[in-house]
Write a structure and sequence with these properties.
2 copies of one chain form a homodimer. Chain A is α/β, with parallel strands linked by helices and 344 residues long. In chain A, 45% of the residues lie in helices and 16% in strands. Chain A is built from 13 helices and 12 strands. In chain A, the strands form 3 sheets. A 6-stranded parallel β-sheet of chain A has the order 2-1-3-4-5-11, sandwiched between helices. In chain A, helix 8 crosses helix 9. Chain A binds a DNA duplex (30 and 30 nucleotides) through helix 2 and helix 4. Chains A, B: GO terms for molecular function: DNA-binding transcription factor activity; transcription cis-regulatory region binding.
DNA sequence: CGCTGTCATGTTAGCGCTAACATAGTTCTA
DNA sequence: TAGAACTATGTTAGCGCTAACATGACAGCG
């Protein structure tokens, strides 16, 4: 009990920022009224509200959202966890999420797992620690501990990209069916020998699902479904290498079904450099419906996946849930569309 | 004073999550010791630390980072504010930032201004409200109020993409010089009539700076520097439209200097569809050094900007500052490189 | 042996805000 | 005109954590 001296009282590193209390003092109200004027203005008299807002400007108040979040046990964060930022597909989903959430005053907390579900688990822990309002993850595969966390966190959990046994909310498309769809198209076009080319199918397992669908259709038609797996994730360069590898390993191939448009476009451009005639000498198909494919000559046959829409719909469902409305349809199939170009 | 009944005492929505106090109880220590075991393990006895970590696992503790942040007035957020997620350029900068920060346990708080500096201002307020550790913005242009906030917030502020009169830290490249560089290249190649094609130069003002450099060189050589401005931001489609507009407005044009690679690649692909010979009938140049340009035939002449490196270097400088080290060189020019393809 | 220094841990007091309850004034209703 | 219902504002008690200070045990030293 040594400090009777009030000037030597216990001091925290008081940030110099003005607090709500000071705003309240400046407006001549209590701090709860100032709080209400900012957060639930309809519960405060018009006149009072004006005085508070004036005071806010006068003292240069910036709300301490951390304190507000602790007191209310709510934040306005949405955790978004994707496996990669190198892939345009995830970016476009993020764009859809971001546009919808930011319009409602939510912020995106972005995490990147690098296709590692252990890192996903760590990110989920961190984001839960920030009391995020909801979590969005790309895909349905998680570590058991992570599933557990997500299941018991009592917040909306949205799994996007693919459909299946989801934890809670689910917006995506049926990748197996997309693979079947393209395989059928290739058969209809009369191609007899088709190779599927993917990249790192252990990581990009959705491309693996598409291959499963592809193989299913091919085998039902009595054909083989050879697979070539590249060791670098989708890129124009990898696609070029894929074309070379197919021509070497299966010289009589009539069509290549690429796991995505980056690979397919890379192959198309490489074929052009080689003077290869597409589709006469070899047909090429992709997946995603990136803009690039539609600007090539020949235009790329591909499957359009509605990525930004997927993000937007996911965000809307989450917002509905956060507004306390029950979400009836927890699973939402955004579908896809076969875009037939001249490359097949 | 009506509630003497202890069972009816004032209740907060106590989240069911275990708290540090429960961990401490389970480990038989005080909560501050548990806190130290997690945050500054070197200040706790080996034995005790082990007991605490065990207890953490046993009760399934997830630290409440909001509370920690309020108590310590520090968060591990880095605010990153970009004008668009539709542009690959910003994505790659974000990737560089993200990889570096996430490795050090910092999270990215992502904001998108949609090229609107008023929205930027609002985002800066929000992120400051979250006690972010540092802020990264794309570009040097802000509203006066926003400059003011950034200048007085007492946190590292990093402006990336371009160089100039920065508020604090600055990593980028000299866009005017890049414009000059390409203009000189076109002159050296002997093209006499060159048009610059940009998109929304009021928003993408860095493309405007490149045009300034371009015009400077052209005028110094006694040539005109006509400009065509498209009304949609960079895309393959806009580039195709740009080519058409140049051929209509300036039929004798020998070279087009596009503001970026998306436009240039769109024009190249469109020219190919039209049967136009590049560069004999018309030469095409871009800016950014996107992978696509190097896979086209002819390869696109462009300027390589080290985008991921920019993000990485920005992150490293901020981390150095956050570690308490003085940053000596507050401005860092990452430079650029002229990539000469066959399109000029 | 008393003094100082170091280590490990504990006590106390907030961080800045909002939920829950309280209160006073006003309007509506039977 | 009593009292119910509503409006506007205030008082109090935390949210879960950590900074600052306090304490006690023990080692080193002249």
């Amino acid at each position: 009990m040594s400090n009777q001296d009030p000037s030597r009282t216990r001091r925290r590193r008081g940030s110099t920022q003005p607090t709500l209390k000071e705003v309240a003092a400046a407006a001549g109200v209590s701090s709860i009224t100032a709080s209400r004027a900012l957060n639930t203005p309809e519960r405060v008299n018009e006149e009072t509200r004006k005085r508070v807002l004036e005071a806010v400007d006068r003292v240069g108040y910036v709300p301490n959202l951390v304190a507000g979040s602790l007191a209310s046990a709510r934040s306005r964060f949405i955790a978004v966890i994707v496996p990669s930022l190198a892939n345009a597909v995830f970016i476009e989903v993020i764009r859809g999420l971001q546009a919808t959430f930011e319009a409602q005053g939510y912020q995106i907390l972005l995490g990147n797992t690098d296709y590692d579900i252990e890192r996903e688990h760590r990110l989920v822990r961190t984001f839960l620690g920030w009391s995020c309002s909801a979590l969005v993850t790309a895909g349905l595969r998680h570590t058991p501990a992570c599933r557990d966390l997500l299941e018991h966190c009592d917040k909306p959990v949205m799994e996007v990209m693919e459909l299946g046994e989801a934890l809670d909310l689910n917006v995506g498309l049926d990748h197996r069916e997309a693979g079947r769809c393209m395989a059928r198209h290739l058969l209809e076009r009369g191609y007899r020998r088709t190779v599927y080319v993917g990249a790192c199918l252990d990581k990009d397992y959705r491309a693996g699902l598409r291959f499963d669908g592809h193989r299913e259709v091919m085998e039902a038609d009595g054909r083989e479904a050879p697979l070539i797996e590249l060791d670098r994730l989708g890129s124009l360069e990898a696609g070029a290498a894929g074309l070379d590898r197919v021509r070497e390993a299966y010289p009589d191939t009539e069509a290549i079904h690429f796991a995505n448009d980056d690979l397919a476009a890379g192959a198309l451009l490489h074929g052009f450099r080689l003077g290869l005639k597409v589709p006469d000498e070899i047909a090429i198909a992709g997946f995603n419906g990136l803009a690039l494919g539609q600007h090539l000559t020949p235009r790329l046959t591909t499957i359009q996946s509605p990525r930004e829409t997927m993000g937007r719909q996911a965000a809307e469902q989450i917002l509905r849930r956060l507004d306390g409305k029950r979400v009836t349809r927890r699973q939402c199939n955004v579908g896809f569309e076969l875009l037939v170009g001249e490359s097949t």
